[in-house]
Amino acid sequence: MLNFEFENRTKIIFGKKVEEQVGALVSANAKKVLLHYGGGSIKKSGLYDRVINSLQEAGVEYVELGGVVANPRVSLVREGIKLCREEQVDFILAVGGGSVIDSAKGIAAGFYYQGDVWELYMREGTFDECLPIGVVLTIPAAGSESSGGSVVTNEDGLWKRDIGSLKLRPVFALLNPELTYTLPNYQTACGISDMLAHVMERYFTRVIKVDLTDRLAEAIMKSVIKQAHIINQSPDDYDARAEIMWAGTLAHNDLVGTGRQGDWASHGIEHELSGIYDIAHGAGLSIVFPAWMKHVYKSDIPRFAQFANRVFDIEINTMNLEETAIKGIEAMESFYGLIGMPTRLSQVNIDETRFNEMANKATNDGTTTMGSFVPLTKADIMAIFELAK
Ligand code: NZQ
Ligand code: ZN
Question: From the CB of 192, is ligand 1 less than 6 Å away?
Fold first, then answer.
């Protein structure tokens, strides 16, 4: 096990009606808040009205900025920074999913930064201070409600890039599983795909003797797969929704990554896809991950066989461990199919036209590698795109 530091300050408040506490929580942290949200699902569901009521009852002043799109754009982040400075906002409340939270984090990081916020995403600048953030989560997926990451797309050049800092972890996150009943099945499945990917990125590691975190990871994956089957049949099953929601947070609050080195190449490759083609992140991952697995599994067959055995209950064939490993990859792929996720680029109308451009972007024109389980060169990434066709 590697040395590590683990810190996660986000206070999670979980369960039915917890969003009613939002006004009191914000008033304990702020004088004037920016209410940040997406394209309208919170207005349709009535959550927007409940949040406003709660803020008003607590006597919190607010300004609002809606319109965050999936794969959030830096132009709105810039608008948010300007608004927060003009209005002397001292807290950001993100009501929505990963895109809204990530946009809020961009605003939070850019608020005190003197240059253009995009410089932070391009590693051309750093920030020490940021505005605090609170979250009312409406989709279990990205884990941004307690992660230190923010992923934003620049329309100019279609670069999707991230920043990460412990300071960006939200102060609180309110998680009511009932708020997820209104999710379209496709978005529920995208969320499931993303949380599984967050665990797998950490699970496939070169670090040995990490039994505890292996088993925590396997428990999350097994449970998510089990609950996904239940939600497929009964989308309004509170307990299954609750398990999935908590799993989404645990998958990415970094507990499972303690003492080990994660890979993150599949995420890196996916960000090139969703940056250019604007597909849902979870759908990009269900395409990239099986292709990545097929490309790299031979470098550590025992780990892939363990994955097959412990996550999908596939019997270990001691005479032919490779066969067990392959069966695990196949099981993963059929699970994606079962929940309605694509596993080939052709299913989301992406052809080879821009493979080279994406592989260049991912590797700084072929000069760097991506990931650590197998450091992928530009040629590896091209091969993964070919496998994903
Ligand atoms: O915009 P609205 O109208 O709210 O609709 C959203 C959006 O269209 C809808 N939705 C959300 N909650 C709903 C709902 N519809 C009905 N009922 C509800 N309760 O769902 C759509 C997708 O929302 P989005 O926020 O984009 O989804 P998600 O949480 O999957 O976030 C994806 C983004 O997070 C980034 C991804 O790259 C992507 O940009 N990630 C962020 C990470 C982080 N910050 O730590 C890590 C991840 O790996 C990921 O990269
Ligand atoms: Zn992700």
Answer: no
* Full 3-state SS string of 199-256: HHHHHCCCCCCCHHHHHHHHHHHHHHHHHHHHHHHCCCCHHHHHHHHHHHHHCCCCCC
CATH code (residue 220): 1.20.1090.10
Q: Where are the alpha helices (DSSP H) in the chain?
A: 22-29, 41-45, 47-57, 74-87, 98-110, 118-121, 185-203, 211-233, 238-250, 265-277, 281-296, 301-312, 321-338, 355-362, 378-388
What's the ipTM?
A: 0.99
Same domain for 107 and 189, yes or no, is no
328 within domain boundaries: yes
> Looking at residue 149, which CATH number applies to its domain?
3.40.50.1970
Atom in ligand 1 nearest the alpha carbon of residue 72: 39
Q: Which pLDDT tens digit goes with each residue over 50-83?
A: 999 999 999 999 999 999 999 999 999 999 999 9
Among the atoms of ligand 1, which is closest to the Cα of residue 97? Answer: 25
Q: What protein residues have CB closer than 5 angstroms to ion ligand 2?
A: 194
Q: Is the beta carbon of 187 within 6 A of some atom in ligand 1?
A: yes
Q: Is 58 in the same domain as 152? A: yes
pTM over the 0.95 mark = yes
What would the pLDDT profile of 226-235 be if each residue is shown by its tens digit?
Answer: 999 999 999 9
| 140 within ligand 1 shell (Cβ under 6 A) | no
Ligand 1 centroid from CA 157, angstroms: 22
Q: 238-276: per-residue pLDDT in tens?
A: 999 999 999 999 999 999 999 999 999 999 999 999 999
- Of the three residues 162, 179, 196, the one that is the final residue of a domain is 179
> What total of structural domains would you count in the chain?
2
